Amino acid sequence: MVQEDEGRQPVFNLPGVLTATVLLLAGIYLVDAYLLSDDWREWVLVNFAFIPLRYLYPFADEGMRQIWTPFTYSLMHGSMQHLLFNGLWLVAFGAPVVRRIGAMRYLVFWVLSAAAAAFFHAGLNWGEPTVLIGASGMISALMGAACRFAFPRHGGYDRTFGHLYPRQSIIGSLRNRTVAVFVGLWFAGNILVAVGLPLIDAGSDAIAWDAHIGGFLFGYLLFGLFDRVR
What we know:
Blueprint: H1 16-34, H2 38-48, H3 59-62, H4 65-72, H5 80-101, H6 103-124, H7 136-146, H8 170-174, H9 177-194, H10 209-222
Helix pairs in contact: 1-5, 5-6, 5-7, 6-10, 7-10, 9-10
């Protein structure tokens, strides 16, 4: 156990709600991948993944799936690689955001940012039968939010104590060279994915670059609505 000074956070401890998030995502994947039959896995995908085509049908036909799938898709992952990759980024960028805004606001942020990422994707794929799963849209929103406060002026990224820095304005954050470079490289990477040049091997899983961008813009532009008054 690391001793905690007043006003400081333990160096090696994750916030409890973030640990619970990682365990929840892992548990859902393991059940889906190893305990369910093929028929049940198909049923879960149809009922909990986000599909833009679903919104061409009236609510009477699709029912509550039009309400919950903009969130539930973010709990699902298509492969162990997909889960591990998202888990690492979730821990890296979720920790300072959770420490700053608290557990309840983090949960609200998760739901709304997942929906923002999903509908940004739907806006570019309206009426298409694409199937969107994975937490990367919400994680991209955490990245955008962290850019508003967790990159100190002297450079670098402070995952442990970044929550203690003041929130920068939307324009002011980009005056920080580290933030500007990070944002530029992040968008460049997603643009390369969009034109068919993925930077990592995603296997058979298509990378939802549009959901990433929608999530990032939500987190970066709207983080002030979730930040505590200081």
